[in-house]
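DATA SHEET
Item: assembly model
Revision: 1
Owner: S.N.
Input lines:
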Amino acid sequence: MQVHFWGTRGSLPTSITTKMIEAKIFKAIQVSQAYKLETDEAIKTFIRHELPFSVRETYGGNTSCVEITNQTEYIVCDAGTGLRDFGNHYMKAKMSGQKNLPNVFNIFISHLHWDHIQGFPFFTPAFIPGNRINVYGYHEALEHTFVNQQNEPCFPVPLQAMRADISFHVMEPDRIYDIAGVKVTGIQQHHPGDSYGYCFLKDGKKIVYSTDSEHKEGAQNDNHRFIDFVKEADLLVFDAQYSFLDAVDAKVNWGHSSNLLGVELAVLAGVKRLCLFHNEHTFDDEALDHFLEDTRKYLKILDGSSNLEIYLSYDDLTIEI
Ligand SMILES: [Zn+2]
Ligand SMILES: [Zn+2]
């Protein structure tokens, strides 16, 4: 299986500023002084291998949207602004004449906070007759909230004007669903208004998408239900919006977790790959580079023999499982 990240930013879309771009160019030229870059190939190799991620690229600013790719129907978690890019990618493939593209889109919603639904009004496939959009979630207000965000005076195009066949499905926690050949279960999470994590099982592979979740004291106990839920997952996408200090001090009860807690829970549960997600919107690219480095250092301190792979999500990241 393969997971592609279309939107990774927490709470609020974030754009890169002109000053940030200037700082990246400055740093790149500064570092390049020590190299002889006489051909295009040499320049490309230098960019790829000598510049840190925060200088050569960007973590991106779209809010939550993650795709489990190459399925018989599309499977997407959350409808943040990343959903617009996913929709545009689909449209491009369709316009270029690509055959056998699925026309069913299954979108699993963690909760109804704005940053997890705001991409839907800009999701072009939802305007195309013949497409089917299934929106899944655990909140009773699922359909009402989607309809409402497109009602006046918030948005000029009502949901009813979207021409695809759109339906909403409220699921029951702990029940196992078979959707597009994938076994799907959910878990209730601690977050203002509740949120739900999703577990996807197929061909012996396990992917857990768990965002907007504050793990309280006791989360590290072996018998904690979250540990069971993520046990031996091939990939755990984990809400790590906060640094450890934020999580235990300034931002208690704000509904998010830290990078360090993510490492502890992943190690306890025997997870193979941990992807930090819902990136803090006030962190710039350099801060996020350090955040990832610190998280990897913490794993070494916690368990030097651990084989856990740690990623920090960015818009356009693909993880092979
Ligand atoms: Zn969120
Ligand atoms: Zn939230």
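QC remark: The pocket of zinc ion (ligand 2) is lined by residues 111, 113, 191, 212, 255 (CB under 6 Å).
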